[in-house]
Amino acid sequence: MIRNRDAFPETAPHATALACVEAGIEAAHPERVVRAALRFDGEALAVGDERYDRSAYSSVLVLGGGNAAAHVAVTVEDVLGDALDGGVVVTDDPQPTDAVDVLPADHPIPSERGVESTSELLERARAVDEGTLVVAVITGGGSACMVAPAAGISLDDVQATTDALLDSGADIHEINAVRKHLSAIKGGRLARALAPARVSALVLSDVVGDDLDVVASGPLVADTTTYEDALDVVERYDLSVPESVGERLAAGARGETEETPGPDDPAFERVSTHLVGTNMTALAAARDVATDRGYETLVLSSRIRGEARDAALAHAAVAEEVVETGNPIEPPAVVLSGGETTVTVAGEGRGGPNQEFALAAALDLPSAAGLAAVDTDGIDGNTDAAGALVDGDTVTDRGVAEQALDANDANAYLAERDALLETGPTGTNVNDLRVLVVEPSE
């Protein structure tokens, strides 16, 4: 999986960090988690604890989108075989399928081809009836892949707003509150399009806390946010958004535009959701690998968030404490964390939250420690790297490293030191994974 494994030193911290990263990502792959949740005996389809008699439905379709959507579709096809009648998924990571149409999109900035693909997805959704069983696919990255601008909103408007949100330091809950109110598919609107079909959704979460209304901007669940919430995000972060966006949010806040579907909306009466993969899926697998290698392990949290640099400093402090006092665990130790940090972009460099995290941590890591920080989808920020693997010797020129951070140009600094970690698209997306390996001090 790790394409540039040979670039890293063959030391225990580096080898262990790489093994943990691979295990975590592989454990969250749809082929594993979807197959574990889906069973078909030729007569009935079991999704989690629910059972659907195939004979009760005139057709079974797969519909949805996100980074891992095609990989999910491949597994559903394999499980259902001839009992599956087709479907559509929209993704930036296409895979060959037999019955399901895989349509192109882009991530993290939505694109024209994503609009065209989502239009076809909505057309197929609106064509179903109460005799249709829809196995819905909702994965991380769905907010960008499934793009259907609301009336009066252009793709350019969506792109500009997305850029502003991603650069602002806003968290995913805030970002998606805005996205939902500029869309004809997000915030429960796909559920409306699918009614009255029976819908059973398979969800891979890339959201801290696994809030279903936030994963892919919640196209199949009731929206807990309002136009007023979305407008508050724009104002709080002083975002420069297109005039049409500001006017739509303001009109919605005044009650002049219909709100997104809430919990009492009948569209959700025949929709069920099944969370099949989360950040804890990856963390648990990484922990098992570390334990097997003889390390004491600690899962610090699956909900690390906030500015990447601040969270990185806290992790470096944990490494120092482990080395100096044996708290919270004795070395050799592996401390794991997940979640999603953010970056308030002030410079014009290249990088992503995980690269900023790794470089900021490297400023203060003790020599006995190594740290890998990756986005489990294999794409960190505006680069082709998944993240980085650093140690106490990565930074030898603190001033230059700090300048790179100030310019949001961690990618260039880490590339020069062969510290970037490259996987390519991984087929999954369950948020960020960080592996801190601390050996006993010499």
Secondary structure elements and their pairing?
Elements: H1 12-27, H2 30-37, E1 38-40, E2 44-47, E3 50-53, E4 59-65, H3 69-80, E5 86-91, E6 100-104, H4 112-126, E7 132-139, H5 142-145, H6 155-168, H7 172-180, H8 189-194, E8 198-204, H9 227-236, H10 243-253, E9 271-277, H11 279-292, E10 296-307, H12 308-325, E11 333-342, H13 353-362, E12 369-375, E13 387-391, H14 398-406, H15 410-416, E14 420-421, E15 432-438
Parallel strand pairs: 4-5, 4-7, 5-6, 7-8, 8-9, 10-11
Antiparallel strand pairs: 1-2, 2-3, 11-15, 12-13, 12-15, 13-14
Helix pairs in contact: 1-11, 2-3, 7-9, 9-10, 12-13
Domain MOFRL-associated: 17-249
Organism: Haloarcula saliterrae
InterPro entries: GK-like_C_sf (IPR037035), GK_N_sf (IPR038614), MOFRL (IPR007835), MOFRL_assoc_dom (IPR025286), MOFRL_protein (IPR039760)
What does this structure look like?
With 442 residues, the chain is of the alpha/beta class. It has 2 domains: 5-26 and 280-438, 3-Layer(aba) Sandwich (glycerate kinase, domain 1); 30-148 and 183-225 and 260-277, 3-Layer(aba) Sandwich (Rossmann fold), CATH 3.40.50. The protein is built from 15 helices and 15 strands. It has helices at residues 12-27, 30-37, 69-80, 112-126, 142-145, 155-168, 172-180, 189-194, 227-236, 243-253, 279-292, 308-325, 353-362, 398-406, 410-416, and strands at residues 38-40, 44-47, 50-53, 59-65, 86-91, 100-104, 132-139, 198-204, 271-277, 296-307, 333-342, 369-375, 387-391, 420-421, 432-438. Helix 1 packs antiparallel against helix 11, helix 7 packs across helix 9 and helix 12 (308-325) packs parallel to helix 13. This is DUF4147 domain-containing protein.
